[in-house]
Amino acid sequence: MNEEQELVQSWNDFCDRLKEAGEIIQHSSSPQDAFNRAEGFRYLTRVLRAGLESQVESANPSYPRFFQLANETIKIGNDNPDNIYHNANLDGRLDYRIRGHRGTVHYMSFGTKAGGYQTTGTMEPTGQLEAADLEIDADGRFEILVSRTPQTKNWLPMTEHSNSLIVRQTFNDRETEVPASYEIECLNPQGSDQLVPAEFMQRLAASAEFVNGTAALFAGWMQNYSKHINQLPYDDQEKCQRAGGDASIHYLQSYWKLAPDEALRIHAPRIPRCTTWNFQLSNYWMESLDYRYHTVSFNQHTAAHNEDGSVTLLVAHRDPGNQYPNWIETCGHDQGGMLWRWIELQEAGQFPVNCDVIKLENR
User: Distance (Å, rounded) from C-alpha 48 to C-alpha 211?
Assistant: First the structure.
């Protein structure tokens, strides 16, 4: 088979592998109604966009660029509505420089990872640097060196197995905070930035594996969360880190499901000292609900607190009235994922978040 024939075969294999991803959406453990299934198939198209961007368009680690695996219309793994995410592909054997402006966003972290949903199904942490630890000049500008070799300041560590970077910017108030801006370059690139047919075939296959790996991973999580529907226990933190989670976040993660006349009351009896916290609602495929047009999350800035400092949120299909000012809209969904984050906890121990299902009075 010559190279032209191999290219045709790689395209056919790519299409066949995408078709196989549909079996995840149709699995017997997934919701069987048309609404949730349609969202599942739309989810695959979104993950495909992310896969092509990461595995094809931005795949060359010698010529890196920032792209987004999650944004307003691409959503993966309970993506945070308070976040701006950026990703870049790296090679742990090379060195990189990130230059940028800090802005005023409340929290920001840079994390190097090893693996990927298209290969190992994990994104193991290999180094982290937070904005609070950056040396920043009087104009708000910073420079970060990303390498295996330790640096005297603003060093983001890698290992030889590091192959990606995640940047998280977490807002308390998107309306008033200014996001950071940054760019990345490789200091010792290898090879050319031109398209190579053999490499393209590998990258096309990787993008299809990214779709299958991502969908299968988080469908499995939801099956596990079905053991504690409408509760918010602490998740396995090591598991969350292996999937690309932030080392400074504690995750409480689960599954919600409500009848038309039910609501889920969520109560944090004590807010510990932390940089911030947030709660979000997602659909069954662990995509954050549409925060552009609906209130689907709260954080320490946006939530109304009780007189004793505690916080009570209510997930409900309709406005519950003044008794519950922190109303989280279900946006036509009857079930899905949910997540509470404690970000940069400054106290030891676990801080529970209690849940109970209540009936809403007819109005």
Answer: 6
Q: What pLDDT digit, counting tens, does each position of 162-182 carry? A: 999 999 999 999 999 999 999
Element (H or E) spanning 316, and its range?
A: strand 311-316
Number of C-beta neighbours around residue 98 at 10 A: 22
- Where is 200: in which H helix or E strand? helix 197-225
- Which structural domain, as residue segments, surrounds residue 101? 61-189
pLDDT for 361: 74
Distance CA(118)–CA(54), nearest Å, equals 10
Output phi, psi for 20, to 5 deg: -65, -30
- Sign of the C-alpha dihedral computed for residues 270, 272, 277 and 279 taken in this order: negative
362: which DSSP letter?
Answer: P
pLDDT above 90 for 57: yes
Same domain, residue pair 138 and 260: no
DSSP assignment letter at 28: T
Q: How many helices (H) and strands (E) does the chain have?
A: 4, 16
* pLDDT at 88 exceeding the cut of 80: yes
Residue 121 has pLDDT above 90, yes or no: no
Strands, DSSP E only, in 28-154? 83-89, 96-101, 107-116, 122-130, 141-147
Identify whether residues 159 and 212 lie together within a single domain: no
What was the pLDDT predicted at 133? 96
Q: How far, in Å, CA of 343 to CA of 356, rounded?
A: 24
Are residue 41 and residue 143 in the same domain, yes or no? Answer: no
One-letter amino acid of 60: N
Tokens representing 341 are 């984050």
Give the chain's length: 363
Check if the beta carbon of residue 262 is closer than 8 Å to that of residue 333.
Answer: no
Model pLDDT for residues 296-346, shown as the tens digit of each residue: 999 999 999 999 999 999 999 999 999 999 999 999 999 999 999 999 999
Q: Sort strands 311-316 and 327-329 into parallel, antiparallel or unpaired.
A: parallel
| 211 and 136 belong to one structural domain | no
